[in-house]
Design goal:
The protein is an all-alpha fold. The chain has helices at residues 2-32, 49-69, 71-80, 84-91, 95-106, 110-129, 135-159. It is globular, with a radius of gyration of 18 Å.
């Protein structure tokens, strides 16, 4: 009986954590838009909970399936669907529409996004090496950087629909870097 109550309490804490994740995404987006967020942002988007939960579980299952197939498809799908939660929180997309839009947004930018996520991982690892105290700086910085990349990808996808790529040609990169959009 005690185990059941612990399980229920654990589910409650996880639900609160997910609501706060939604709020942190919203706050990161506000920082990118040069707006001043307030603390109520952490909890006032609770209505997105079920959609966010469904999308998070679906992304997790897709990526897990890719890792089971071999590691590379899991990495590719993790990058392809990395923008799903942002689309749900920022633009109120339905889950499947967010998957489709995320795929469109990341088309042609997977290598740049792969490098970006590696650099974020390295930065956070360095923060961890500083006795964990560095994470107080690196995690918020990473969150805002990810929100910034989402904004760039979204605006580029809105400005120009993804053209069909002819066989043998390379799509134009849309991430900052050599040959990409310069900010």
């Amino acid at each position: 009986m005690a185990a059941f109550f612990i399980f229920i309490i654990s589910l409650g804490f996880q639900a609160v954590q997910m609501i706060m994740q939604i709020g942190l995404l919203k706050i990161s987006l506000k920082f990118c838009d040069r707006q001043t967020p307030d603390y109520s942002e952490l909890y006032k988007n609770y209505r997105l909970f079920w959609r966010y939960l469904g999308a998070s579980l679906l992304v997790g299952l897709v990526v897990l399936g890719g890792f089971i197939l071999f590691i590379v498809p899991g990495i590719i799908w993790a990058i392809k669907y990395s923008q799903v939660n942002y689309l749900i929180v920022d633009r109120n997309y339905e889950v499947m529409a967010a998957f489709k839009k995320s795929g469109e947004m990341t088309a042609g930018s997977k290598w740049q996004l792969f490098v970006f996520f590696l650099v974020l991982g390295l930065v956070n690892f360095l923060g961890l090496l500083c006795l964990g105290v560095g994470l107080f700086a690196t995690i918020p910085t990473s969150a805002v950087a990810m929100a910034f990349v989402y904004r760039q990808l979204f605006h580029h996808a809105q400005a120009s629909p993804i053209p069909a790529v002819a066989a043998g040609s390379r799509p134009t990169p849309i991430m900052p870097g050599p040959g990409g959009i310069q900010i």
